[in-house]
Target: Carbonic anhydrase Xa
Amino acid sequence: ILLCSTQPNSPKIHEGWWAYKEVVQGSFVPVPSFWGLVNSAWNLCSVGKRQSPVNIETSHMIFDPFLKPIKLNTGGRKVGTSVSQVLQ
Model:
């Protein structure tokens, strides 16, 4: 698992849109199936289930040797994942 923090490049108008629930604090928020309709550059988001348009700038990444291992609490449920890359 790769975790990183980046400065968003998108306009502030999009900041509140990235949620996986249709209602956040009483307001409708487009879920992944709608993200691809908002911006054609995010069209792959319409295909998956829990995806968001993330632009990881590897030139801005910094390795932190002091990070502790991630602990996931899944409530006893088994969790599986798959990863794929699309290279252009």
